[in-house]
Amino acid sequence: MDARYDLAGRTAIVTGGAGGLGRGIARALRDAGAAVELWDADPDGLAEAVAELGVAWRRVDITEPGLVEAAAAAAFAEHGRIDILVNNAGILGEVKPIWETDPRNFEAVLRVNLFGTYLVSRAVIGRMRELRSRAGIGGHPLRGHVVNIASIQGKEGMARAGAYSASKAGVIALTKSMAKETARDGIVVTAVTPAAAETAMAKQITAERRADILSRIPMGRFVEIEEVARMVLWLASGECSFSTGGIFDLSGGRATY
Ligand SMILES: NC(=O)c1ccc[n+]([C@@H]2O[C@H](COP(=O)([O-])OP(=O)(O)OC[C@H]3O[C@@H](n4cnc5c(N)ncnc54)[C@H](O)[C@@H]3O)[C@@H](O)[C@H]2O)c1
After folding, report:
1. What distance in angstroms lies between residue 157's CA and the mean position of ligand 1's atoms?
2. Which residues lie in coiled coils (predicted)?
3. Which residues have a catalytic role annotated?
4. Which of 63, 111, 217, 246 is the Cys-Cys partner for 252 at CB 3.0 to 4.6 Å?
5. Cα–Cα distances in angstroms (integers) from residue 25 to residues 47, 105, 149, 229, 234, in the given order
């Protein structure tokens, strides 16, 4: 590792923290000294992740406005502040051409990936704005960082993943909108657009589709969970102070913009 981060004294929430990328991101934040809370809807996954990482947790379905609001209120009350929010929870949904899909699937994917990201951001950013700021680079005030996990599919679209791709395009636009709204508040909002990683999500696809996805990545491999986590570390640290609204590539050369 070339870079080391000191996030001692910072508190972070990672949604979907029981899953593959979320767990890796939580581990990296914890190892950098942050106090981490995992938010997830899956109790078994949470229990396993907490046993592995030894961090705090909260069972939250991010699609339920009342639950999200209560969880944010409790997290701020317990820790006094939240400095870092990683909106990572997400689902893939059906892998079918649009004419074969179930409209309920489209709604469910949008509801978790986009509406859930909106709900958690709404609850956390609203409270983050009230925090006392600290001095960032050049003495400019910093209050916190929000990092959204989008996907390369949100930029390019992907056959048989219309709902997923549309939801991630929505996350990209939401990132930019929230960044403009908080630009004067010392809150930096960014997103990453990974190509495929070896997590539970990648195991939901057929070998043929997996080979197709791999063939689109010029580096010829999937992204390592640690590579995502280390980019998120930078984006969640005071080192990232002027890139608000930025969408950061993690696609092994697949992205053309
Ligand atoms: N794995 C990939 O190839 C890949 C590539 C690009 C982007 N992503 C994105 O990375 C993020 C993490 O995905 P992953 O690969 O780790 O998948 P994963 O399935 O391992 O983890 C996702 C986690 O989100 C949780 N979750 C789902 N719905 C929820 C809800 N309503 N409320 C709270 N938690 C909920 C799940 O319980 C799970 O623990 C997702 O947003 C995904 O779209 C993944």
Report:
1. 18
2. none
3. 164
4. 217
5. 17, 27, 11, 4, 11
The reply to whether ligand 1 has any atom less than 6 angstroms from the CB of 197 is yes
Compute the C-alpha angle 51/69/111, nearest 5°: 85
- Identify the helix (H) or strand (E) that includes residue 87: strand 84-87
Task: Give the span between the Cα atoms of 117 and 213, in whole angstroms.
Answer: 25
Confidence (pLDDT) at 146: 99
11-250 is classed CATH 3.40.50.720: yes
Name the DSSP letter for residue 139. Answer: G
Tokens representing residue 37 in the block: 């809370």
State the average pLDDT over residues 210-232.
Answer: 95
174: CB partners within 8 A, 6+ apart: 114, 117, 118, 121, 148
The per-residue pLDDT for range 159-208, each reduced to its tens digit, is 999 999 999 999 999 999 999 999 999 999 999 999 999 888 888 889 99
